[in-house]
Design brief:
The protein has 284 residues and is α/β, with parallel strands linked by helices. The chain has one domain: Alpha/Beta hydrolase fold, catalytic domain (Rossmann fold). The chain is built from ten helices and twelve strands. An eight-stranded mixed sheet has the order 1-2-4-3-5-6-9-11, sandwiched between helices. Helix 1 crosses helix 10. The protein starts with a strand and ends with a helix.
Length: 284
């Protein structure tokens, strides 16, 4: 794996990790994280895809991880444009683009705007997220979904919490989640995504309406929702996924059981489904 920095807009570079298999020829994948996350949460999936012969690229989106942190904008269309520039900059050959949570909305927008860039997309517990349908107004959405203030907390405390909360996660998922934070010299942490930028991304998600984009999708779409055991939440998710499938030209669904960050929790299982997509479904 090697890390490269790619200029995607004025003053904005994205840090991307490029994973290459021993033998070339497999369909490439571009793996996109969710809000307040980072590229390394996909490490386990990338390693499993490489084992199946696929090149893979994991990326820190603007404001996140090692990438540039401009004042803005952070709307979904701008972040999707960053990805289009990344695909061109890395000369990726029509990758399958997978996005988790907010990243699912971003890759869906990318596919709607640039169907020529990829062979298909995978929306992992996201892509249908439309908080404007769940909250009466932006203020209510912000109040419910604003992140906790974690800057200044001891790294040991954050590490202990993440490991105790996810006892069945592999080390790749745990380390990837811990990479959401900068560790300061005094042993405290700060999220790489600042609070103000987090709110800006959230506002962009509030303003995004993926249901208006479904009919525009001309590439195969794999929807990979997760049943986390919350009956009411899963019922609403099933409603949203069924609506998406009814409107997307070529869509399939594969449900997982587990955590919202299923790519960190069960990377081999998710990678297996994604690999099967390239062999059983996608055109050449």
């Amino acid at each position: 794996m090697r890390t490269v920095n790619v200029r995607v807009a004025d003053g904005v570079e994205l840090a991307a990790d490029v994973w290459l298999p021993a033998a070339q020829g497999g369909v490439p994948f571009l793996l996109v994280h969710g809000l307040a996350s980072n590229a390394r949460t996909w490490d386990g999936v990338a390693a499993a895809l490489v084992a199946n012969g696929h090149p893979a690229v994991t990326v820190d989106l603007r404001g996140h991880g090692r990438s540039s942190k401009p004042d803005g904008p952070y709307d979904v269309a701008t972040v999707a444009a960053d990805l289009a520039a990344l695909v061109a900059g890395l000369e990726l050959d029509r990758p399958v683009v997978a996005g988790q949570s907010w990243g699912g909305n971003v890759v869906l927008e990318l596919a709607a705007r640039h169907p020529e860039l990829g062979r298909g997309i995978v929306c992992v517990d996201g892509g249908w997220l439309e908080p404007s349908r769940e909250f009466p107004d932006w203020d209510a959405c912000r109040a419910a979904l604003a992140p906790p203030r974690l800057a200044g907390r001891p790294f040991a405390e954050i590490d202990g919490y993440i490991r105790s909360a996810h006892p069945d996660w592999p080390e790749s998922g745990l380390r990837g989640t811990l990479a959401n934070f900068e560790v300061r010299p005094d042993g405290t942490v700060a999220p790489w995504l600042s609070f103000d930028h987090h709110i800006a991304v959230l506002r962009g998600l509030w303003e995004h309406h993926p249901s208006l984009r479904y009919a525009d999708l001309a590439v195969p779409v794999l929807l990979a929702p997760v049943d986390g055991g919350d009956t009411d939440w899963t019922r609403r998710k099933r409603r949203d996924v069924e609506q998406a499938v009814a409107m997307i030209r070529d869509a399939r669904v594969h449900w997982f059981a587990g955590d919202h960050d299923i790519h960190a929790q069960r990377p081999d299982e998710l990678a297996g489904v994604m690999h099967a997509m390239t062999t059983d479904w996608l055109p050449g």
